[in-house]
Amino acid sequence: MANIHRGSEDASGLRFAVVVARYNDFITKPLLDGCLRTLAEAGAASDDVDAYWVPGAFEIPIVAQQAARSGRYDAVICLGAVIQGETDHYRLVAEEVARGIARVGLETGVACIFEVLATPTTELAVARAGGDAGNKGEEAAFAAIETARVLGEVADG
């Protein structure tokens, strides 16, 4: 029978960096609030959580990379919102941000959680930032806790 490993939702003793885009802050602020609230409710001490604001989603990967490389964090949570406009710019930004965040996690071995909303409308983004579709910041916090715990189990053998 296989040994099954599942990360717990206990954040106590873990350290988190949250990198959040200021652009579309009417979306990203509620995402951050949900994320921070969830981390606290799961047992993370306020001193163990650092939030870093960056100008836009495109700047998230470089700050996430530095946070992950610092050795201070068990997980890096990336929050942003890219909303479709009249051009394909939003798609280019969203794809590069996703690629960059994935690369950070793979290159550093630190849990790097992608929760950059890429939506065709503002309404859909609002729905995912505490509206009808829940709060994706909360989901990102739980993903960070669980992934960090599983990575710890892998490292411990």
Overall description:
By secondary structure, the chain is of the alpha/beta class. It has a domain at 49-120: 3-Layer(aba) Sandwich (Rossmann fold), CATH 3.40.50.960. Helix content is 48%, strand content 22%. The chain contains 5 helices and 6 strands, in the order βαβαβαβαββα. The chain has helices at residues 25-41, 60-69, 89-108, 122-128, 136-156; strands at 16-21, 49-54, 75-83, 111-119, 129-131, 134-135. Strands 2-1-3-4 form a 4-stranded parallel β-sheet, sandwiched between helices. α1 (25-41) links the parallel β1 (16-21) and β2. α1 (25-41) crosses α5 and α2 runs parallel beside α3 (89-108).
CATH topology of one domain: Rossmann fold
Please provide the ordered H/E string of secondary-structure elements: EHEHEHEHEEH
Beta percentage is 15-25%
Instruction: Return the CATH class of one domain.
Output: Alpha Beta
- Shape descriptor: globular
**Helix/strand class:** alpha/beta
Find the CATH superfamily of one domain: Lumazine/riboflavin synthase
Extract low-pLDDT stretches. Answer: none
The major sheet is characterized as:
4 strands, parallel
> Over all CA atoms, what is the radius of gyration?
15 Å
Q: How many β-strand runs?
A: 6
